[in-house]
Amino acid sequence: MTVEIPTTQRALVFDTWNGPLEVRQVPVPSPADDEILVKIEYSGICHSDLHVWLGDLKGMSVCPLVGGHEGAGSVVQIGKNVTGWQLGDKAGVKLMNFNCLNCEFCKKGHEPLCHHIQNYGFDRSGTFQEYLTIRGVDAAKINKETNLAAAAPILCAGVTVYKALKESNVKPGQIIVLTGAGGGLGSLAIQYANAMGMRVVAMDHSSKEAHCKNLGAEWFVDAFDTPDIVSHITKLTEGGPHGVINFAVARKPMEQAVEYVRKRGTVVFVGLPKDSKVTFDTTPFIFNAITIKGSIVGSRLDVDEAMEFVTRGIVKVPLELVKLEDVPAVYQRMIDGKITSRAVVDFSL
Amino acid sequence: MTVEIPTTQRALVFDTWNGPLEVRQVPVPSPADDEILVKIEYSGICHSDLHVWLGDLKGMSVCPLVGGHEGAGSVVQIGKNVTGWQLGDKAGVKLMNFNCLNCEFCKKGHEPLCHHIQNYGFDRSGTFQEYLTIRGVDAAKINKETNLAAAAPILCAGVTVYKALKESNVKPGQIIVLTGAGGGLGSLAIQYANAMGMRVVAMDHSSKEAHCKNLGAEWFVDAFDTPDIVSHITKLTEGGPHGVINFAVARKPMEQAVEYVRKRGTVVFVGLPKDSKVTFDTTPFIFNAITIKGSIVGSRLDVDEAMEFVTRGIVKVPLELVKLEDVPAVYQRMIDGKITSRAVVDFSL
Amino acid sequence: MTVEIPTTQRALVFDTWNGPLEVRQVPVPSPADDEILVKIEYSGICHSDLHVWLGDLKGMSVCPLVGGHEGAGSVVQIGKNVTGWQLGDKAGVKLMNFNCLNCEFCKKGHEPLCHHIQNYGFDRSGTFQEYLTIRGVDAAKINKETNLAAAAPILCAGVTVYKALKESNVKPGQIIVLTGAGGGLGSLAIQYANAMGMRVVAMDHSSKEAHCKNLGAEWFVDAFDTPDIVSHITKLTEGGPHGVINFAVARKPMEQAVEYVRKRGTVVFVGLPKDSKVTFDTTPFIFNAITIKGSIVGSRLDVDEAMEFVTRGIVKVPLELVKLEDVPAVYQRMIDGKITSRAVVDFSL
Amino acid sequence: MTVEIPTTQRALVFDTWNGPLEVRQVPVPSPADDEILVKIEYSGICHSDLHVWLGDLKGMSVCPLVGGHEGAGSVVQIGKNVTGWQLGDKAGVKLMNFNCLNCEFCKKGHEPLCHHIQNYGFDRSGTFQEYLTIRGVDAAKINKETNLAAAAPILCAGVTVYKALKESNVKPGQIIVLTGAGGGLGSLAIQYANAMGMRVVAMDHSSKEAHCKNLGAEWFVDAFDTPDIVSHITKLTEGGPHGVINFAVARKPMEQAVEYVRKRGTVVFVGLPKDSKVTFDTTPFIFNAITIKGSIVGSRLDVDEAMEFVTRGIVKVPLELVKLEDVPAVYQRMIDGKITSRAVVDFSL
Ligand SMILES: [Zn+2]
Ligand SMILES: [Zn+2]
Ligand SMILES: [Zn+2]
Ligand SMILES: [Zn+2]
Ligand SMILES: [Zn+2]
Ligand SMILES: [Zn+2]
Ligand SMILES: [Zn+2]
Ligand SMILES: [Zn+2]
């Protein structure tokens, strides 16, 4: 199998925070000995991409930059020391990479906690370009049968919700509350939770009720118009849900979750509130033996597991395919709160 | 074996919150069909006893009352439906009892979370009297060889620290920080932690350093005079301890613990801060995948396990034996912060 | 609510092993202080009932006897010390009862391992009669909405497969092999496994293929006509299933399972082979870090959890309702291998 | 820091199975880009080395060969792509290496189960030579303070027992039986078990009683002269030990362990019996919910953890330092059963 690799490629670049986003010709990189070159076919557009471009995450990102961290495509070149990859294999490019594979966190399979992490689309050129190099050990294996466009958002959004669900420790047959359930993460979470045997209480604005129930939520709670959320959920779930995952980016739902979760239940924080602070009352927390956990993306194994649910068709990703040139318009719709399905760049368009 | 049981007995009673504590003659109760009658030989004096008497816990206690919830003694009468107990057996009377043994929490071995709990020395007559009835399923089995005076404080203080250590999920060879390590709970915790293979960082006032190290702490951190606790502990433990148990009844050490605990580490809250509230920054919490847990006393199984370490002589309880009439004086010394070892009523004095 | 309770009732009795099974009038028992009286409406017929009657389990059963250990009905009388039950509540009567609730196994929620167990329909009068007493703490709570006829077999067959699936440690998205998948236990197991997110390989005689696939098996393996089962399953599952549950009552499938299970996978033994012995090769066992576990029925909590899947309609029990007088005929069909769905005595017939 | 590296070195080579073992001059290898060159200072002599040389493990070893797989020394040269290593660092060379770090087992931290494993001293030149190359990700980090001679045997023997103890799932305060407790693995296991809070029953020939008790065993059982081992241990441990680790290379102790282990307890198989087969009775196995597990060496993380107990001085390794030329004599003493402490080649002798 031979693939012709051009010397230049199209990439979406910005030179200043919140500055113009332009499609330019840039060189195609060559893989190092331990890297593969991936021809990106699809790249999901994540809210974090918007925030990086806006300059909201200056501490962890650089500029000028090519954004994007949910890339799926084909292997077109392979470094000489790489094992386990063949030309033509489908590969995924996720956010966190270049972990050392040799520290205590890497050895435990918690690579996202490694000190050596570099993030595509944050502090390194990302997936909003046609070709990208990545270490063989970092790229995600994707089956030939998997819908590649749907695979892209799993590499960040999908694995984030899947990992949070695992961390919740909610068992098949038990109940989980998902705040912000109608959004991008939440919509995936409802499906993953069902696939894992959990019973879902979806919380969001009332306009999302039908959407959430169609995806598999057993109950829906209006997050904005319910008089006493804590007692309502406690009653609905006969003592509180066994777990809660907070995708909402606000302080109040996080603090409420600690109050209504079942005794010995677990609240997982994924979304960050505005000022990042949360306050809670330790008396019921201690008396009810509650657990609060932070969860962020997932390991390489979590990615593989999350991907398989998509390959099997159990989790479906509502997609909107766009051109690379459309990314700025997608960002504007994100700012305006007008994105409902997952926007994914289709490089063939 | 026959034991003569009197019709009246000595008990320490108070009629009003913070009112006089008097030793009076009260009737000896008869055990119900599922109860045993225990002749109390020793009863530990817990800080909670003081707070109940002061009226600080009105919501969960009654008045007039006989306090005390750490009683150890001998079985002198047995209800007709009781199994598993013989006259002369040593028995322990702990805080929480009368759980239903039939709800989801009881069936999971989390009896302290049962809705049907009644607390000796809080909302029922406690162990500051010579005879007490308790259900056979609630009383703790104590070996004949166990030091009964030392067994008494294990029934509340001991099991509380042992359970918190289990909840910390710190493995043998890993590091745990104990705040308030020089106090009553902390002094037991250092020993239990060592017996469980953990390496201990003790935090307290500098005057407690020798005490903590003698009990087995590998490191000591001055909780009041260390300029930057967070970076000091992070450095000392090469990345943070794997777990922290907070026994200190203050807000600051709890908030610091969330900052210095190792990535993916666990902070267990046992002590309650003054106003009960704690605030923390969710950004590092999420990025470092931290867990916070509340822990309170322990199950019947936890009591049995905690007791065995004392029976084996692995955990030693520094004791001060006092008369029943001395309890008010002990309360005063608690208020003045002058209690160092565990005060235990010896009914033979 | 008042219910008239007769003084005598119909019961299916046998006086000698393998002797006549006759419906006779026997006295209705009165509940002790800690017991309830249940009017049995449905009683599942289990293979063990047959074996007890045949005298195959003499060590653990008595004679004369009323068999049956899968009873579901209504509470019609309540002992004075019972809490948590109301007249008219639906209650389940399972095999193992009278555990002490106070030994190390009971305290851990492993009541079936308690030394004090008595078994309805084995060493005590069972559910093949209209009225039965049972301790309040032993009876299973059943929701009013639950299909009572379907609830009955869950009390033994259902909880057995549910517990074995929990013990397999197979996670959502992972693969489990079920041997004897087309039988009574297996048919329930396929459904429970799916409800828990597992992917099922069903093994049985080729005539069961459609049946197993209809119930939710993803793959089917002919247990009798596949040339090399071990390599076939290894290939089919790309390295072996993560878990295996053996329901087949034969030695060969148990020994094969240890060979084809995935590295670090778990084989759960439920069914007993003829002579009870199994031999395996420890070299691959050790090199591949395999686990073998024995599993038997389940705790009271397991019963509650297993029941809820039926209440929710997720697990369906294929039923054949019969009269009490029909039990001997059902036994004969069991001996002839002609039972496909679960036979359940309907006392209203 | 500069270290002079010679072009040739001393190595212990054999050309035919069970043929002459000779010290010869062989070339010093150069590290590849991802490798380091380690100057071996100590190399433990393992029973497996003997069996490789004897030709008992032909399927997994090659010939001619330099044996040895417990090497500890200093880093003297570093490949250009290696991170995390400095010249002069202390490094350990263990048995299993070259795992892919990218398969499901590697991603879960079970590298010994990877298909890509190569074994030093088995199918690749091992540590019975002065210089060895190893990938940076495979070498074990050893602290400067660690006793290097004692570190060597931890790389195979130590991690094997430590991992088996972790796999036993025995908790602090619970009881473990160690068969073959007086041997090389067993002597380390007694110490590790104690350091992990376990209570140890040592089983071996009566001549080993004092040795085992000195190392920390609480009880000793004569494995050869006790009339009824099963009932003896059941009684001694009041219901059976919570776990058993079998180091004895015989069938009988393995089969007995399944009988006397506590209900719901775990038997870990490490040692291989002669013909490799084990037979057990599934009836008590199922009724008592027993678990049997195979365990082999450990992951890179297990090595690090096991090493730290030695660094801290908690686990002591009884050593006998020998010259490289002495290895054949040590093999002979192994065959004669005359090795008591761990023989370690000291390359400075
Ligand atoms: Zn993202
Ligand atoms: Zn790392
Ligand atoms: Zn207390
Ligand atoms: Zn309860
Ligand atoms: Zn019991
Ligand atoms: Zn049955
Ligand atoms: Zn691998
Ligand atoms: Zn070895």
From TrEMBL, chains A, B, C, D:
Q: Which residues form the Enoyl reductase (ER) domain?
A: 19-345
Q: One GO MF term, please? A: zinc ion binding
**Which cofactor(s) are needed, names only?**
Zn(2+)
Taxonomic superkingdom: Eukaryota
Q: Establish whether keyword NAD is in the entry.
A: yes
Q: Would I find Metal-binding among this entry's keywords?
A: yes
- Pfam families given in the database record: ADH_N, ADH_zinc_N
List keywords of the entry alphabetically: Metal-binding, NAD, Oxidoreductase, Zinc
**Cellular component per GO?**
cytoplasm
Extract the InterPro entries matched here. Answer: ADH-like_C (IPR013149), ADH-like_N (IPR013154), ADH_Zn_CS (IPR002328), ER (IPR020843), GroES-like_sf (IPR011032), NAD(P)-bd_dom_sf (IPR036291)
- EC number of this enzyme: 1.1.1.1
Q: Which family does it belong to?
A: Belongs to the zinc-containing alcohol dehydrogenase family.
Q: What is this protein called?
A: alcohol dehydrogenase
Q: Which organism is it from?
A: Caenorhabditis nigoni
